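STRUCTURE:
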């Protein structure tokens, strides 16, 4: 009996000491716990003593040594990579055609796609450019539109957008002035729907611009002024208003009085240009109607060299906030 009591005196304290060491808490970190925002976080699991000492627990009213714990700081680990960023700076030219709305023929169209068009799953604004007479869909290429686009993309000056340069078929181009059966009808009901269903475009008025040169400039004004719900940005380089004999309801000067015009209007002419006087007169009419617009006069005549120098300013004005 005395021997058994002696063993108990030594064995029981020894087992208690081993148990005490085994039950001591070792800090552990768990990875892969989701925070309320759904991101992966790393955070420590609190020990039992931390839980007991938490002043928000039952001991807060009886334990004078209770200290309010400092909030745990979480580190968020991104769950996905940053979106693909475009590093290209060159535009791509595409040749297309569509069956005319007011003509039985196929109408040729040139389209400049912005850099990374195939790589980025997004939609784009569209700038339509109308040629002068007797030019065709390649007129704006001659004026240097491709170089101007690559300059602004190379400098990150402007956001990306599509450029569409259609052939304006005869006799719609020269022998109509607007409304049903005219080039306005072809543009609104033929060209624009074709582009919207073929390319990834933002199909709304403020994401469409329209500019033209000479006779194309008159069409840009007529179409834009009559269809501001479809076209909210309009530019006209030396519009040949001096030889425009439109009926009043299709005349840009009359349409100014309607008050429902595009939000951005850009006018330009050369100082010895045959279109100078009428372009300035239209600018004065817009000013009297308290309609915000931009008018620029440069040195030059009614020719390509005059229009070429103003293209960067035209692009900037019409597309800067796209």
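SEQUENCE:
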């Amino acid at each position: 009996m005395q021997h058994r009591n002696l063993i108990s005196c030594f064995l029981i304290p020894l087992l208690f000491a081993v148990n005490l060491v085994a039950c001591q808490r070792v800090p552990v970190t768990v990875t892969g716990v989701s925070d309320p925002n759904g991101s992966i976080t790393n955070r420590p699991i609190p020990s039992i003593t931390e839980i007991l000492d938490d002043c928000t627990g039952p001991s807060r009213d009886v334990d004078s040594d209770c200290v309010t714990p400092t909030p745990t700081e979480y580190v968020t680990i991104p769950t996905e990579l940053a979106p693909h960023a475009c590093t290209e700076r060159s535009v791509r030219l595409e040749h297309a055609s569509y069956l005319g709305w007011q003509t039985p023929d196929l109408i040729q169209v040139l389209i400049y796609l912005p850099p990374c068009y195939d790589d980025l799953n997004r939609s784009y604004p569209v700038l339509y450019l109308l040629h002068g007479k007797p030019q065709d869909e390649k007129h704006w290429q001659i004026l240097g539109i491709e170089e101007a686009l690559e300059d602004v993309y190379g400098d990150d000056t402007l956001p990306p957008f599509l450029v569409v340069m259609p052939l304006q078929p005869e006799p719609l181009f020269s022998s109509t002035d607007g409304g049903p059966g005219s080039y306005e009808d072809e543009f609104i009901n033929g060209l624009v729907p074709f582009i919207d269903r073929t390319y990834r475009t933002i199909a709304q008025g403020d994401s469409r611009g329209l500019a033209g040169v000479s006779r194309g400039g008159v069409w840009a004004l007529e179409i834009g002024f009559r269809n501001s719900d479809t076209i909210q940005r309009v530019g006209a380089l030396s519009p040949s208003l001096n030889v425009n004999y439109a009926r009043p309801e299709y005349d840009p000067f009359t349409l100014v009085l309607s008050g429902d015009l595009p939000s951005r209007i850009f006018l330009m002419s050369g100082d010895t240009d045959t279109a100078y006087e009428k372009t300035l007169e239209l600018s004065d009419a817009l000013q009297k109607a308290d309609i915000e617009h931009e008018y620029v006069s440069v040195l030059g005549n009614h020719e390509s060299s005059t229009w070429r120098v103003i293209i960067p300013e035209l692009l900037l004005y019409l597309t800067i906030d796209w």
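REMARK: The first strand starts at residue 29 and ends at 34.
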